Amino acid sequence: MISWGLVGGIIAINVVYVSMFTLRLILVIKGRRGAASFLAMAEVFVYLFGLNLVLQNLDNPFNMAAYCIGFGIGVYLGSRIEEYLALGYLVVQVIVDSLAVELPNKLRDLGYGVTSWPADGRDGKRLVMQVLVKRSNEKRLMDSIKQLAPKAFVISHEPKQFKGGFWVRLTNR
User: What pLDDT, in 10s, does the model give residues 74-83?
Assistant: First the structure.
């Protein structure tokens, strides 16, 4: 007989465990070893509790299916939580097709640190800007760029580390 309470419990425990696992992995990648270590302790407790529950009830394939379902949901939920937390920074490179654009100053007026330089593109002179922004402010920056320079070419990536400049002084506070 199927115990739906047990099946639901296995799903819930695995969602919690795998979400914690996903967040811990991301914290390690982002260099936040201390936070990852504390999260790992709670994660292992939840894992052992859930694994014990499943191993005691291997006679029912619904329990194993529940474990798999919880695992999948946990990966999704963990990645969504990390996306919401938006840990770290992005380097956003913006390229516009005119050197006369006031975009760097407008972005600076909005509080962004902008480094800009002229460049040669296939069809002429370009203005290249590099902006370092907290990931939590990415959408706001992209919306500002879209409004101020709708034809801009934009690339973003996460820096592993950075050194020097006024951003380092701001982030070390």
Answer: 999 988 998 8
Contact at 8 Å (CB) between 108 and 166?
Answer: no
Token pair 């654009």 in the structure block, residue = 101
Which amino acid makes up residue 18?
V
CB of 26 closer than 8 Å to CB of 87: yes
Please, what is the angle between helix 33-55 and helix 4-29, to 10°?
Answer: 160
CB neighbours of residue 70 within 10 Å:
26
Helices within the chain (DSSP H only): 4-29, 33-55, 61-85, 103-109, 138-148, 165-171
Cβ neighbours, 10 Å, residue 127? 21
Q: Find all residues with CB under 8 Å of 3, minimum gap 6, and list them.
A: 57, 60
Can you tell me whether residue 87 is helix, strand or coil?
A: coil
Full-model pTM: 0.67
Report how far Cα 55 is from the mean position of its chain's Cα atoms.
34
